[in-house]
Amino acid sequence: MPPFPILESKLTPPLTRRGTVPRAALIRRLEASAATPVVTVCAPPGYGKTILLTQWAQRDPRPFLWLSIDEHDNDPAVLLTYLAVALDRRARIDPGVVGALASPGASLVQSVLPRLATALSTLADPIVVVLDDVHLLRSRECLDAVATLVDHLPEGSQMVLTSRGEPSLPLARLRAEGRLTEIGPAHLAMGAGEADALLRATGLNLPAAEIAEIAGRTEGWPMALYLVALSARAHRSDGAGIAVIGANRLLVDYLQSVVLSGLSPAEVRFLTRTAVLDRLSGPLCDALLRTSGSAEVLEALERSNLLLTPLDRHREWYRYHQLFRELLRAALERREPERVGRLLLRAAEWCERNDLPEDAVEYAMEAGDAGHAARLVLRLAFPVYHSGRLATLERWFGWFSEHDLLERYPPIAVLGAWVQAFTGRPAEVERWADAAERGSFEGCLPDGTPSIDGWLALLRAVLCRRGVQQMRTDARAALALVPAASVLRAPALMLLGISHLLAGETATADRVLAEAVDAAKDAGSPDTLVVALAERAILAMGLDAWADAEALVEQARTVLRDTHMHDYVTSIVLYAAAARVALQRGDLPAAQADLALAQRLRPQADYALPVYAVQSRLELARTYAALADVAGARTLLREVDDMLRRRPGLGVLTEQAEQMRLRLDSMRADVIGASALTAAELRLLPLLSTHHTFREIGERLSVSPHTVKSHAMSIYRKFGVSSRSEAIQRARHLGLLAA
What we know:
The protein is mainly α and about 750 residues long. About 60% of the residues lie in helices and about 5% in strands.
């Protein structure tokens, strides 16, 4: 099952509205585009983009895979889940693609995207993939995923993108290659004939001259034409003397003076006040307006063609046409600005009571109710994290940061710092952790911890900013405060065990880590379970107990297979240990595969998580040294030295680094190769496989284009290649990039 509830309305084309005018000429244009893999339909709101595609889907024999994009899809885990579910429903694909969606880990991009692309490219029959409202997709990782899927479309299939503006995709390349069909406002604008058909479909009969005048003054804008028809029908039967504004002006005044004035005060109140909702249902509107009978009102509005679209066949949920909603919302904010916040809070409260907590978060944030939003986010943080939607958490936490609320809500700052650490942003970790320390909080936390002190102690332990002894003190403090049933008890035990490991107290470390393993199993904390097992394997290797180490590594691998947590940054410890175990038993291909997996995670493992970062690099350096790859081991050791300068006092890791330095000094250096890539070069490597230019990559990495070029040239040299495409091919061969 997917890691979160699937909204069926996102995967279903909107129902065709009554009175819709057939766009025959445009459909013929789309049918003629079958040889081009990508179609864009770009125009401002109200031009009938979605209606056109639903009409096309009714005529085209190919299956249409539909996804209506919204703000939540800027999390790649969410976007890829919906795409995989939609593809699975419309075509037979590799069961592993959908199986990976059950992951409680943050690995959907790595585990699902390659499989999804492969499944798409090997489909027996052509399909049409529609991404509606792509302008709402701003996440670069999500846009890169879409670009990847475009390049894997099988012959005869198409991807159709609707947007208010040109999507941030490699359209210039597709255009130059003749692989793009573009439909814009000029194509979508209605001529006099279609305008006449639209007006007649609403019961309005006008002379040809007046229709031509209306079509000309609206410049064929379908939405303006439709509003003209509504206003005429509301005010007079023949439509004579209709005044029409130009299509280049916002329609707010027109909506107020003509469309809304033709409705009863009760209807206007219903429309404007419910415009705060993304989706509408009878019970939700009843709660919002503190009334009854809203379901019947919605049905009547939908029957009247008042720009209300049902989202399901049972007509339980609806949405307003986006432009219509924007106009209604503007009217509400002009007429009753003091009411907007109250309505949003009522929506949040209803969603929370009716098992829609994530919708409740969005409404609470839009209302500016930080307390309500904080309570919901704290309750949802762990399940959302375990479902792999880190981008969703980052967006929620980012709202508190943008509103300067971190010190006011230190539990949010604690969890935010944790997320920043796991995504490789050390400067942000420091800022969020410091804000958490400065803030004050009274009361019990969602996991039952009686005060913020327990969470703060755990954060200090994982960041290990003041050495091993303080790490142990912090881990013990966390254990004393975190209740036995808390999901945080397992990581507290694990960090305590690691503190003993770093102090050289191997027997105590192994005992405490074994307790952490049991606690992680009981709490359903797979990320902690993987790390605790890997740490025990490292201890066993230190005692030359290789059979025990291999058994522990295999246990951890089983957890990864069952949860698909391959790209958790903490899993780097397992891959580093697994590579040493594989090499010890003489399985060089397995060792190289684990080395590649570890290298892919290495850029994320920085001094924000100093123990994992240093320990994994030392284990990797041992493997490279055993392979006589001195250059690779020295590259890792240089990064270790830098981290130890930033985070001194890491116990035996400092001694191990010195021992590794002496060992490497006594070895003969070999030829520089792929193993010698620096963390900065590994961070660049995935972006080389995208359509982005060096300038665009530099903007993404916050470095200059010259720096990007220098790193790229270094990668080429270490790979022994001379071009970007050859470097990508070599990286895939080595396992440093997904195939």
